[in-house]
Amino acid sequence: MSDPLEGKALALDAADELAGHRKRFVLDEDTVYLDGNSLGALPAHVPARMADVVAREWGELRIRSWEESGWWTAPERIGERIAPLVGAGPGQVVVGDSTSVNVFKAVVAAARLAGPGRDEILVDATTFPTDGYVAESAARMTGHRIVPVAPAGMAEAAGPRTAAALVNHVDFRSGRLHDLPGTTAALHAAGALAVWDLCHSAGALPVGLDAHGVDLAVGCTYKYLNGGPGSPAYLYVAERHQAAFDSPLPGWNSHADPFAMAPGYEAAPGAARGRVGTPDILSMLALEAALDVWDGVAIEDVRAKSLALTDFFLECVRAYAPGGRVEPVTPEAHAERGSQVALRCAEAPAVMAELIRRGVVGDLRRPDVLRFGFTPLYVGFADTARAARVLAEVLADVPAGTGAPGA
């Protein structure tokens, strides 16, 4: 008898309006790539664009490309491409630097924007480690103290001494989606600013920065935005804060008249004051080209498919996996789920290594979490069913309580 889940996968793929986007990426037919939440797949047209950037814009035009090829305006221009994906209006997103550098800018600027007497910064206690490291440094620099708080407790923890809170929209380990609208509103009610890390949500689900009144936000571009390894991050500064945004890294690129080379600093207007030094043009233009895959794509449709994929994966895992070997960490509720499924497994290191050897690429968060990221633009339902079947086979071959296949 045929597997009913295989039939369901075929029907879902046939009805998938985003299925045609898969051909826009470089993917191996014999591999299921479920690690786009760490590094997105290469859009197929990017190599040709980069060959032109290197050979013509750099090789032939050389310094003329700052003007003739639009290099100088790339940080704002590409920011405008990202803005609709995170629900931001024009003039509020600038691309450049790493996520860590932008977290530093945002946290220090938020502390400086806060009113007098506000000497604490709330930090997501489950945050990606770098955010915590950077926030601690920012607090030392500004004379604030760090208060670690679980995301669900931010509203209760915020008070008259709170300057700002730094929160991850989606938890990098579990895939839990945190309440951006509710948390932001609660922080504002307490007189504090909201700074959001969007690394695991931008390009996977609607964010609504403007609609929900977010103050500052940062995010990377190499995950669901497919910008390439180490591609530049972005910084969102709500328009209402731009005139008072005081960057701790004032560089010549964010000067109101950068080529005056004046000894004194005067910040540029708008989002450009989030710039620092000379942009990383090669990575930036690769990102710009990669964003072409979003032309004509609605983020709401991406979210709908993401939830359908993760629902189906959980269904397949329940059907195929040996009982008691894996436990979902990612919430079942759609309102609490990003675009990944995390499974707790005692033998996680051995299991993930064997999954990758057999052509299902996820990743591991030590000591015991298997992570599977679902990128709706190129992951299908047949891929999803196959990944669950291979996971079940690997679990059967990796005995419980052991660290290696067949041990």
Task: Describe the protein in words.
The chain is of the alpha/beta class. The chain has twelve helices and 13 strands. It has helices at residues 4-15, 46-58, 65-68, 74-82, 99-113, 129-142, 154-157, 180-189, 281-290, 299-320, 348-357, 381-397, and strands spanning 32-33, 93-95, 120-124, 145-149, 162-168, 193-197, 216-219, 234-237, 327-328, 340-344, 360-361, 363-365, 369-373. The strands form three sheets. Strands 2-8-7-6-5-3-4 form a seven-stranded mixed β-sheet, sandwiched between helices. Strands 9-10-13-12 form a four-stranded antiparallel β-sheet. Strand 5 (162-168), helix 8 (180-189) and strand 6 (193-197) form a beta-alpha-beta unit. It is globular. The two termini are 33 Å apart. The mean pLDDT is 96.
Summarize the structure.
With 407 residues, this protein is an alpha/beta fold. It has 12 helices and 13 strands.
List keywords for this structure.
34% helix, 7-stranded mixed sheet, alpha/beta, 4-stranded antiparallel sheet, single chain, 407 residues
Mean pLDDT: 96
Number of H- or I-type helical stretches: 12
Give the end-to-end Cα distance, rounded to a whole number of Å. Answer: 33 Å
Question: What percentage of residues falls in helices of 4 or more residues?
Answer: 25-40%
